[in-house]
Design goal:
It contains ten helices and no strands. It is mostly helical and 357 residues long. The chain folds into two domains: 249 residues, no CATH class; 51 residues. Keywords: Coiled coil.
C-alpha cells in the first residue's frame, strides 16, 4: 500500500494516529538512504571494473616485456605465499600454546594454594572446600588437555612452516636469475591484488548496508499495514455494516477478498522491487582474473617465438592455394578472398616480428 493510500484511508478519522507519521518518516528516511547507498554502490562497481581493467593492462604489458621467466619463477613466488600463510598460522598456534600454558599454571597454582591453606588449618575440611578443590582439580585436567592439544598443533604448524621455508630457499637457488628478472611483475601483481581486494571489501560492505536498510524499509511498511488494518477495523465497528444503495449491487465476499488481495499486492510492490535488486552484480575472483593476464601474454609470446615456423606454414598454404585454384576452378572473387587472407597472415607475422624487436 503506497503512502498516499495510507493517508487517504485515515481521512475519516477524527485524529491521525501518530504512529502513521512516525512510520512514514522512517519510510522516507529509508528511501533516501537506499538511493544514496545504491548510487555509491554503482560507483564502487565502476571503480572496481576500472581497476581490474587497468591492472590487467599493466600485467599483460609486463608479461610481454619479461617473457617466459615469469612462468619459470612462478613456483618460487607461490611458495613464498605459502610460507607467509604458514608463518602466520605458526605464530597463531604459538600464541594459543602460550595461553594454554598460562591457564594450566594458574589452575595448578589454585589447587596448590587450596591445599596449602588446608594444611595450615586456615580452612576447615567441609563440603564447600571439597567442592572448590574438585572444581580446581577439574580445571587443571582441562588445562592439561588443552595444553597438550595446543602443543601438538604448534609442532605441526612449525614443521609446516620449516618445510615451506626450505622449499622457498631451494627454489631461490634453482631459479635465481628468473626470480630477479620477474620480480617487477609479481610485485605489481601483489599491488593490484591489494587494491582490488580493498575495493571488493568496500563493495561487500555497501551491499550489506543496502540490505539492512531495505529490511528496515520493509519493516516500516509492514507496520504501516498493521496500523491501517487496525484503524480500518475500528472504523467498521463504529459505522457498522453498510447497506447498498438503491439499485446498487451488494459486493460478494469473493469480490471483497479480491480487493484485499489487490491492495496487499500493491503494498508489497516496492519491497519486492528492492528485494529483486539484490545480488545484481557478482564480483569476480581477483586472483583468478590476474592469473589469466600472464597466461594470455605467454600464449601470444609463444606465437612470436615460433614465427619462423609460421612463415613456412604461410608459404606452404600460399603454394597450395595457387595449385588448387586451377584444379578446383574457383571464381575470381573466391581467389581474391583467398589472396586477402594470405596477406592478413603475412601482416600478422610482420607484426609479431616488430613486437619481438
Amino acid at each position: 500500500m503506497s503512502e498516499k493510500s495510507f493517508n487517504q484511508d485515515e481521512l475519516d478519522e477524527p485524529e491521525l494516529d501518530p504512529r502513521i507519521q512516525i512510520e512514514l518518516e522512517k519510510l522516507n528516511t529509508a528511501t533516501d538512504e537506499i538511493n544514496k547507498l545504491e548510487i555509491e554502490l554503482d560507483e564502487s562497481h565502476t571503480t572496481f571494473r576500472m581497476l581490474l581493467n587497468e591492472s590487467t593492462r599493466r600485467l599483460q604489458a609486463l608479461s610481454r616485456k619479461l617473457g617466459s621467466c615469469i612462468e619459470r619463477s612462478r613456483p618460487y613466488w607461490e611458495a613464498v605465499e605459502v610460507a607467509k600463510v604458514a608463518r602466520v598460522e605458526c605464530q597463531r598456534a604459538a600464541v594459543a600454546y602460550q595461553r594454554a600454558n598460562e591457564i594450566h599454571a594458574a589452575a595448578k597454582e589454585t589447587v596448590a594454594l587450596a591445599e596449602q591453606r588446608f594444611l595450615s588449618q586456615d580452612w576447615k575440611f567441609d563440603s564447600a572446600w571439597q567442592e572448590m578443590l574438585n572444581h580446581a582439580t577439574l580445571k587443571v585436567t582441562e588445562a592439561e588437555l588443552k595444553k597438550a592439544e595446543s602443543g601438538h598443533e604448534h609442532r605441526l604448524r612449525a614443521a609446516t612452516f620449516r618445510a615451506a621455508e626450505t622449499r622457498v630457499q631451494h627454489l631461490e637457488e634453482v631459479q635465481k636469475r628468473s626470480i630477479i628478472k620477474s620480480r617487477p611483475y609479481f610485485e605489481e601483481k601483489q599491488l593490484c591484488q591489494e587494491q582490488l581486494n580493498t575495493q571488493k571489501k568496500r563493495i561487500e560492505e555497501l551491499q550489506n548496508m543496502v540490505q539492512k536498510v531495505k529490511q528496515e524499509y520493509s519493516q516500516s511498511l509492514t507496520e504501516l499495514e498493521k496500523i491501517s488494518e487496525e484503524i480500518h477495523r475500528r472504523r467498521e465497528m463504529r459505522r457498522g455494516p453498510r447497506e447498498p444503495g438503491v439499485g446498487a449491487e451488494k459486493s460478494s465476499p469473493v469480490e471483497e477478498t479480491a480487493k484485499e488481495s489487490l491492495l496487499e499486492h500493491l503494498s508489497r510492490g516496492m519491497v519486492q522491487k528492492y528485494e529483486n535488486d539484490d545480488n545484481a552484480f557478482s564480483l569476480p575472483d581477483v586472483n583468478a582474473e590476474l592469473d589469466c593476464c600472464d597466461k594470455h601474454s605467454l600464449s601470444s609470446l609463444s606465437v612470436g617465438t615460433s614465427s619462423e615456423r609460421d612463415d613456412d606454414e604461410i608459404s606452404e598454404i600460399s603454394h597450395k592455394l595457387i595449385q588448387s585454384r586451377d584444379v578446383e576452378g574457383s571464381s575470381s572473387n573466391d581467389w581474391n578472398e583467398l589472396n586477402v587472407t594470405v596477406e592478413k597472415l603475412k601482416n600478422l607475422t610482420t607484426t609479431i616480428h616488430c613486437i619481438e624487436d
